[in-house]
């Protein structure tokens, strides 16, 4: 990124926190022994992992034994979903899973793959605010439903799903495991794992100013998963392989900072989002897709220019020094209309022209003014093209 560019793609990845960079560098330089080695240096590395696990557990109000360290949320989601499927497949039982139509690819493609292997999957629609309805989740439950997987905050249009209500309802179905992809919610909106009855919860370091290549799957004791990989005995044999100690320590710091600052960050982001929306909502033909607070997350603004391709708008903004994105970073190179916006709006023109602006709580007023100004100039330019 050049110094003159302004970055509004925090949902795709965040700049690491300076304390995280310092910690990762220090640990990388000093603690390089293998945590599984029986000598003192190995023990020191192991102790750092143990402490990091405790920090993450405390921040999320779960037990340290519930924390499974992974390489990121894609891996956490895969371990959760395939892990459950394999556990039931091993028992030779029929399997049904429920997900929403707006899940991230790292959940959606897992269940699509399982469907090809004969597992039944229900894809729940979302309402005009991009949210699933808890009563529809309940209506979809079958005698052989083993998993409900619903994300907390949608990474494209920002809908906050009614996780607490779904979790409450699922208490009446103790055989159903509840998985939540919490990547975009952590540090932005409140999360209550125990209160909401969440059994499995995925998070990712690089979305919360932590290091890339580090994530967590929270797995409550009652959940039995089969491993997807085989090797050493690390992470209860569910995630074998030598641990990435520097990034684990950096991740723990990032999780703690994310949770500690959540409420203040939320208030700041709501104000910033409001400022941007007040201006963008005046700029016809631009339409705002993200649901309003309290149904929409405070850091995500999704808009469309129906009739225009998202990539064209994103590149035009980049020429003005404004970095935004089309759909999720993981799907943006597909150049297809957004599956998520289509599920929410049922409008293919809107779905083909979605643009995501994702904010950081430290964005300054001047930066937001430049963002708004660039959108204004571009809208005027697009309008003059249409009128010609
Ligand atoms: N889930 C959601 C909601 C996401 O936004 C992302 C990142 N785009 C992921 C999962 C995957 O996370 P990671 O990059 O850590 O694999």
TrEMBL record:
Q: Where is the HAMP domain?
A: 364-387
Coiled-coil stretches are 361-388
Q: What is the protein's species of origin?
A: Paenibacillus alvei
Protein known as: Cysteine desulfurase
**Keyword Metal-binding among record annotations:** yes
Q: Which Pfam families match?
A: Aminotran_5
Needed cofactors, names only, are: pyridoxal 5'-phosphate
Q: Which family does it belong to?
A: Belongs to the class-V pyridoxal-phosphate-dependent aminotransferase family. NifS/IscS subfamily.
């Amino acid at each position: 990124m050049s110094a003159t560019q302004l970055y509004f793609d925090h949902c795709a990845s965040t700049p690491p926190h300076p304390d995280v960079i310092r910690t990762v560098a220090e640990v990388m330089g000093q603690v390089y022994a293998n945590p599984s080695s029986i000598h003192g240096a190995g023990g020191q590395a192991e102790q750092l992992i143990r402490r990091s696990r405790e920090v993450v557990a405390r921040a999320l109000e779960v037990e340290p034994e519930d924390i499974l360290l992974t390489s990121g949320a894609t891996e956490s989601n895969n371990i959760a979903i395939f892990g459950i499927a394999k556990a039931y497949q091993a028992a030779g039982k029929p399997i049904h899973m429920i997900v929403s139509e707006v899940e991230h690819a790292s959940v959606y493609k897992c269940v699509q793959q399982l469907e090809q292997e004969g597992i039944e999957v229900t894809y729940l629609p979302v309402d005009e605010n991009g949210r699933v309805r808890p009563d529809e989740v309940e209506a979809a439950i079958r005698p052989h439903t083993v998993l409900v997987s619903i994300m907390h905050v949608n990474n494209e249009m920002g809908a906050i799903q009614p996780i607490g209500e779904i979790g409450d309802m699922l208490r009446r179905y103790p055989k159903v495991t509840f998985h939540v992809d919490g990547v975009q919610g952590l540090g932005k909106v409140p999360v209550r794992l125990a209160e909401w009855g969440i059994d499995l919860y995925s998070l990712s370091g690089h979305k919360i100013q932590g290091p890339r290549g580090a994530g967590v799957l929270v797995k409550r004791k009652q959940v039995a998963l089969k491993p997807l990989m085989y090797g050493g005995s690390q992470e209860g044999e569910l995630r074998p392989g030598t641990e990435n100690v520097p990034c684990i320590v950096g991740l723990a710091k990032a999780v703690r900072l994310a949770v500690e600052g959540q409420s203040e960050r939320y208030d700041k982001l709501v104000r910033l989002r409001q400022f941007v929306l007040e201006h963008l909502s005046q700029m016809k033909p631009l339409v705002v897709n993200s649901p309003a607070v309290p149904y929409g997350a405070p850091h995500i603004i999704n808009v469309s220019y129906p009739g225009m391709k998202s990539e064209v708008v994103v590149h035009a903004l980049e020429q003005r020094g404004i970095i935004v994105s089309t759909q999720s970073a993981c799907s943006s190179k597909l150049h297809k209309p957004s599956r998520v916006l289509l599920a929410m709006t049922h409008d293919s023109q809107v779905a083909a022209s979605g643009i995501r602006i994702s904010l950081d709580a430290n964005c300054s007023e001047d930066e937001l003014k430049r963002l708004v100004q660039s959108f204004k100039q571009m809208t005027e330019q697009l309008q003059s093209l249409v009128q010609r």
